From TrEMBL:
Statement: the UniProt record of this protein carries the keyword Phosphoprotein: yes
Coiled-coil regions, chain positions: none
Domain FHA, residue spans: 304-363
PROSITE patterns according to UniProt: FHA_DOMAIN
Gene3D superfamilies, per database record: 2.60.200.20
Phosphoprotein keyword on record: yes
Pro residues bias locations: 216-226
Keywords: Membrane, Phosphoprotein, Transmembrane, Transmembrane helix
Protein source organism: Microbacterium aquilitoris
Transmembrane segment boundaries: 20-50, 79-101, 121-145, 157-180
Ranges where the record places region Disordered: 206-235
Protein name (database record): DUF5684 domain-containing protein
Length: 391
């Protein structure tokens, strides 16, 4: 009976285990590099999404906080992001412990401890993978719940919901760098008319339904002898009948007033009236701006700066700031500049996020280039109207 060298068997088993560990470490390193690249890509795309929604773009680079902001933008609780992260850490710990135990079993089987070493190595790879798949299924369900209202706010349908739940970097790139605009979360019931002012409720509880009791009483004096008959006065059908025939009173003719005597003015003297000559008001026609809420603001300067919280630019420190109450959340903090030259107005895009559209065009104007303006224009999705006035 021929027996093999036990030292050679032990060396072969050790080499097998060492090779498996080296392959595992190499795979982990490659995964970390890919994960870092995907995170940078996702942060850049989410920064563009946050800018469109009027949120600080720097939060897209903060782990956990970027997902927290997406949940809040969708109208959900932001702490769901913490639930996802803590669940991922818990799953990673459980998978690591299970993998370590299974690898230890494989080593014991290789060094003669009994058991199936190949099966233990296979289980060390499969069990952690199954744990991560279960965790990812829960994350996908939660992301689908979030992506529904979030995509409706950007005007996108079910295809983008699936894209955002399965491939968040691709979804963020399509929304942040694409043509989608933030329209706000849909309201319950009938949607309101865009840019309409809030209706004002009128309290009519104190107004009586019948106002005939407030009619003036009919005159009761009868016409004197020789007085011509007056025209009939219409009587309200619910008013009480008159006690006497109704006749319109005839006022007595008033004596004509004597014209005032003109004061005597010596030659060379000036009257007080001549000293206060009235000047003709040849003023520039008043211009005004109608905001998205329906409010009208008078333009008191030749330079106007517009935005959510506008600050006059360095080349126009005297500009009149007008804050836009933006329900669409597409207006930048300092968005555009209006300037009057003579009776003509121009508008300049101050490097805004969502651009400026003038008139009925669908093309945004060039940043930093003044464009003639008259009437309707858009700052993002907020509609405004310029009334230049008329002589």
């Amino acid at each position: 009976m021929t027996t093999g060298n036990p030292l050679a068997s032990i060396g072969d088993a050790a080499g097998t285990v060492g090779g498996a560990l080296a392959v595992s470490l190499l795979g982990v390193l490659v995964q970390l590099v890919l994960l870092a690249a995907v995170y940078v890509w996702t942060s850049l795309a989410l920064a563009a999404v946050f800018r469109k929604a009027g949120l600080p773009s720097g939060r897209a680079w903060v782990p956990v906080l970027n997902i927290w902001m997406l949940f809040e933008l969708a109208g959900m609780k932001g702490w769901w992001a913490a639930v996802i992260v803590s669940g991922g850490l818990f799953t990673a710990v459980i998978a690591s412990v299970a993998g370590s135990l299974l690898l230890q079993s494989a080593q014991e089987a290789a060094f003669g401890g009994g058991g199936d070493g190949a099966g233990a190595i296979l289980a060390a790879s499969v069990v952690p993978t199954l744990l991560f798949l279960v965790f990812l299924a829960g994350v996908v369900i939660l992301l689908v719940r979030m992506m529904g209202p979030l995509n409706r706010g950007f005007g996108r349908g079910g295809g983008f919901v699936a894209l955002g739940a399965l491939l968040l970097p691709v979804w963020a790139s399509a929304i942040g760098w694409g043509a989608a605009r933030w329209q706000g979360l849909p309201q319950k019931g009938l949607p309101p008319t865009p840019f309409a002012a809030e209706p004002v409720a009128v309290d009519t509880r104190g107004v009586p339904a019948d106002t005939s009791g407030f009619a003036p009483p009919a005159p009761t004096s009868a016409p004197g002898p020789g007085t011509p008959a007056a025209a009939s006065v219409p009587v309200h059908p619910w008013s009480p009948p008159p006690l006497a025939p109704v006749a319109a009173p005839v006022p007595a003719p008033a004596a004509p007033a004597a014209p005032p005597a003109a004061p005597a003015v010596a030659p060379g003297e000036q009257t007080e009236l001549e000293e206060h000559t009235v000047l003709a008001a040849h003023r520039r026609p008043a211009a005004s701006l109608r905001l998205p809420t329906g409010q009208t603001v008078a333009l008191t300067s030749d330079t106007i700066v517009l935005g959510r919280n506008p600050a006059p630019p360095s080349d126009a420190p005297e500009a009149q700031p007008i804050a836009i109450d933006d329900t669409t959340r597409t207006v930048s903090k300092t968005h555009a500049l209006l300037r009057r030259t003579g009776d003509a107005w121009t508008i300049t895009d101050l490097a805004s996020t969502n651009g400026v559209v003038v008139g009925t065009s669908d093309t945004e104007i060039t940043v930093g280039t003044p464009v003639p303006l008259a009437g309707r224009f858009l700052l993002g999705d907020a509609e405004l109207t310029l009334d230049a006035g008329s002589r």
